[in-house]
Design brief:
It contains three helices and seven strands. It is of the alpha+beta class and 134 residues long. The chain is globular and about 30 Å long.
């Protein structure tokens, strides 16, 4: 059956944010006038997705280079962001939502917040630079 469906649709499984079998970093913005979150999901494979709103469709974006993706995930680990606790959203906020193995951590800070760990801002800036134009 899978062989037949592979011919028509393919047997690969589509990424879903609630699927715990994938390691990924979710990042984006929320709040403001609309209160809607725009979330990007970067998988360890380099595959990138975008979702607008909690129930929005996942849009598959182009894949990042393997060495870039590895560097980002290594930075997240070496900076200790998987265990860094910071949740201070403002009206408009930024976030990193880290899913590595069985570890989960969401870091949220208000736009312009100077008290969040500098490494959070650095990772966020790099991720946003990589998605610009995708």
């Amino acid at each position: 059956m899978c062989l037949l469906s592979a011919f028509w649709f393919g047997c690969s499984t589509q990424f879903q944010p609630d699927d715990t079998s994938h390691e990924f970093i979710a990042f984006g913005t929320g709040g403001g006038f609309t209160g809607i979150e725009t979330t990007y999901y970067l998988l360890t494979s380099g595959q990138l997705f975008k979702q607008v709103g909690v129930n929005g469709d996942l849009e598959k974006l182009s894949k990042l280079k393997s060495n870039t993706t590895t560097q980002i995930f290594n930075s997240i680990r070496s900076f200790g962001l998987v265990s860094y606790q910071f949740e201070h959203p403002g009206n408009a906020y930024r976030f990193l939502d880290i899913h590595l193995g069985n570890q989960r951590n969401r870091i949220v800070w208000a736009e312009g917040d100077q008290t969040v760990l500098k490494e959070c801002k650095d990772v966020d800036a790099l991720l946003n630079q990589l998605i610009s134009g995708k």
